[in-house]
Specification:
With 387 residues, this protein is of the alpha/beta class. The protein folds into two domains: 2-38 and 290-385; 46-181 and 204-286, Spore Coat Polysaccharide Biosynthesis Protein SpsA, Chain A (Alpha-Beta Complex). 50% of the residues lie in helices and 12% in strands. It contains 13 helices and twelve strands.
Amino acid sequence: MWTFIIYGEAGMICLTAFSLLVSLLYFLFLKKIKNGLHSLKGIKSGNAELKSVSIIVPFRNESQNIVNCYNSLVNQNYPQDKYEIIFIDDNSTDDSVHKLGKIIKNQNIKVLKLNNTSINKAFKKQAVKLGIEKSEGEIIVTTDADCTHPENWLATLLSYYDDETAFISGPVEFNASKSIFSQLQILEFAGLVLTGAGLIGSGRPIICNAANLTFRKKVFFEVGGYDDMMNLSSGDDELLMQKIAATKKYKIKFAFSKNAIVRTEANKNLTNFYQQRKRWASKSLFYKSKLLLINLLAIFLFFLNLLLLPFIAIFINQYIVLLFLFEFFIKMLLEYRIVNFGKKYLFDNLRMKLFLFAEIVHVPYIIISAISGVIGNYKWKNREVAR
């Protein structure tokens, strides 16, 4: 089909027009992110009103991380009588629960167990829902058991609330590492977080991370919580944020502050990285907004276009390489500005010398992740999970 379209002057015009169109749509998308980030920089957090807070921590097989997570949460600069921590064990097969039981000393900490249910998917949603149902706070904060939290994290995150705000997303960063593979993940993950932040800042909340977010409990129940999402294993973060945003009754914010950063480890190998990205991509087809799905399709077509253009240049028309180089250069320039903005104001561990290599692998990585997330199940915490 491609050969038929590309041969001849008309085919070249059509290909060039299509390529420039999807590129323009993607570049406008990047511009929206950059403008949104600039708007966030001007928003200052206020003095944290002392709200009653429930921190929900679902976990499964986190023996290596649960103690560090616990210590970072109990040492928050926030009155202990104003927050509780609820750990929910999702049928761990290691000694996570035993380790947790040995170190708990505070009265404001609960450990619950997610019993086997008839729903053989959405385990994390079930765990978080159980924690919310057993919580006493008016504000829910979710995080992961493989994360650590700076001492001013909770106070900073909550300080972004006002009477009109119902949902706040926070930044997540991979810990610094000398490994090239980890440094590439740090760079790529920062790009994802900045994309989510910029979209929130531009008034189009799409992506966020359950490792660092907070919402009002009454609003969670008002929009039906996860009840209409239990057919999908992932999406406890983004789909909930989009549901709340769709009501148009509340503000969605991003806590653009270094003090609000939650840190975790990068994936140790390529297999784990692939499974994680596959899990994240698996929820995109279930976004409710048709316009959003069209935008995501346009972005996918842009990356597919970039992937195919070099092959078209080699085998069919060598002048197509100029079109490829032009589009790739603009993409790299705009994305560099976004990531460099993040390095300047939020993330300190970004190694920008790797940016060019990251851009080269970015194109096939996006295509592989998107297709894998759509067509297959994934593994998570030694469990085969249906999408």
